[in-house]
Amino acid sequence: MQLHSQTPFEEDNPSTFNIKYEIFKYLNYWPWFVLSMLLFLVGSFIYLRYTPKIYSTHAKIKILDENEGIELPTTALIVNRSNINLENEMEILRSYPILERVVERLGLCARFFESGRIKSKPLVNLPFKFKLSVPHHSLIEPHQFSVVVEEAGFKIRIENKSLELVFPEFDTTKKEHELPFELQWSSKYTLEELIGREFEVSLVPKKWAILDLKSRIKIEPLGQQSDLLGIHISGQNTLQSERIINTLIEVFNQDDVLDRQQIWERTIKFVDERFVDLSMELDSIESYKMNFKVDNNLVDVSTDVLDNLKQQSQSSEKLFQVENQILVSELIQTSLLAQNTSVSLLPTNIGIENASVNTLLKDFNAMVLQYQKLKSSAGAKNPAVVLLEANLEDFKSNINRSISAYIEQLTLTRDQLSYRNQTFQSKVSAIPEKEQQLRAIERQQSIKETLFIFLLQKKEEASVNLAVTEPTLKVVEYSISDFLPISPKPRIIYLAAFLLGLAAPFC
Description:
55% helix; 12 helices; four-stranded antiparallel β-sheet
């Protein structure tokens, strides 16, 4: 009998996958796997070493939803800010005029870098004094300059013209040139610290800088019911990003404050202009009044006549109120009598000034609701439902009697007021025609004086608000940058390198 020896790595069945066989088959090539992973990991390290790191910077602000300014106790502000719309505020924050002021304040048309062996490092400022000598709007195309610190002075190379200029004593102001900026040595650094180092100056048109900033800034609300806005920007230089966001917040707040201050200034100007006309009108009325009294031998309207006019006005107002009460009561009574059943609700809180009637209406409606619930659960034939329906019928009759009595009382009061009005009217009619004309003049004078005082008060309010205009936002969190970069991410890069290094030998 011949035995067939079988190795432990051979397959019993060729169609069956043996994972141990596959692993040991490739294990003989382990040096290639190690070499592949080392190459990919070293490549990842070099990539991470020389790839610019991008950091995220963010801040939080709260839009204040409240009335701004200080007002006198007797009146409201002329202009109030309410109903804050966060979408509008977000668009204003990213608007061209706001970003333009940020660019101008930070000088973002000029960008600075320190040249390295492989990559350049972005800087907020150069280590020596830099001043743009031309207006921002004059930069219509980008310019590149290289500044090398040598022992004798600055050597500046204009990249697009391949032209080199040397400025001794580290001061460009001592030599005529056509450069759009000036450089001067700063005592903050010693020559030994900077000698041999090369810096880059990039000048871009203002519009480019604004649009670039607009594309980088992200603003979003922090929650649906929140007044908080989050401001985000990403960049290589965290200090520059933080300066941009903080300046944006400051410019936005100042812009709103200036807008409201312009409103207060316009209000003051308007009041001052109106004062001139009012003063002339008051002087004219006073002169006309004095001449009228002299020409017609009038001293003043008698006190009795003035009292009669006042009493007539008060009586007419009371008469109107009584007639209104009669009308409302009749409407309730009509609604009550028009009901076919006793289970319909009656209108309440429509202006009846009788506590007894209002209480009856409120209790009646409460009983109707109780009846409807009991009928729905127990049925219309239930004895309790039938009893409650009978009580409602009696209640309705009681309400009808109370309203009728109230209407009779109101009718009597109306007749008395009508008689008093006729008495006052007859007394007022006895005022001489000239005195009535004088009274009309005095009323006109009173109206003008009231308007004058009102405007004077408004001017005082505007002056106070102009002096102490409050901000419309609160900085919840000033700009702060994340410690770890958002791009590239070392963990993901190294993991990808490991997997690629492990998979490459299989290809």
